[in-house]
Amino acid sequence: MAEPDFYQENLKLTTQIEEAVDKMVDEWDLTTLLNFAYDDRVHYYCNHAEEEEVQELLRTWGKK
Questions:
Q1: DSSP state of 63
Q2: 62 domain-assigned
Q3: Which pLDDT value is given to residue 23?
Q4: 3-state secondary structure of 61
Q5: Residue 6 falls inside a structural domain
Q6: Residue 5: inside a domain, yes or no?
Q7: Is residue 46 part of a domain?
Q8: For the segment 17-31, what is each residue's pLDDT rounded down to a tens digit?
Q9: What percentage of the chain reaches a pLDDT higher than 90?
Q10: How far apart are the first and last CA of the chain?
Q11: Backbone torsion region of residue 5, taken as left when φ is above 0, otherwise alpha when ψ lies between -120 and 50, otherwise beta
Q12: What are phi and psi of 24, to 5 degrees?
């Protein structure tokens, strides 16, 4: 019996997820999209961004 091709199985699942997310996001209104973008960027800059990225954000978009 051949072993399962985990790469192909993962690729298939990833493709299915991408298609489902695409359909889900297509249903969002502008307020939902903006709220998601805001929450996503705050989470990124607070938890994942390098210090240089944070400083660039603050230089570009912070209080003047």
A1: -
A2: yes
A3: 98
A4: helix
A5: no
A6: no
A7: yes
A8: 999 999 999 999 999
A9: 83
A10: 66
A11: beta
A12: -65, -50
Cα torsion angle, 50, 51, 54, 60, sign: negative
Q: Which residue type does 47 have?
A: N
Q: Which tokens go with 15?
A: 């493709």
| Polymer length in residues for the chain | 64
The number of angstroms, rounded, from the C-alpha of 44 to the middle of its chain's C-alpha atoms is: 9
- Asked whether the beta carbons of 37 and 30 are under 8 A apart, the reply is no
Range of the domain at 42: 29-64
pTM, two decimals, is 0.71
Residues 16, 32: Cα–Cα separation, whole Å: 23
Count of the separate structural domains present in the chain: 1
Written as one string, the DSSP assignment of the chain is -PPP-HHHHHHHHHHHHHHHHHHHHHT--HHHHHHHHHHHHHHHHHHT--HHHHHHHHHHHS--
- Which residue is it, tokens 């997820």? 17
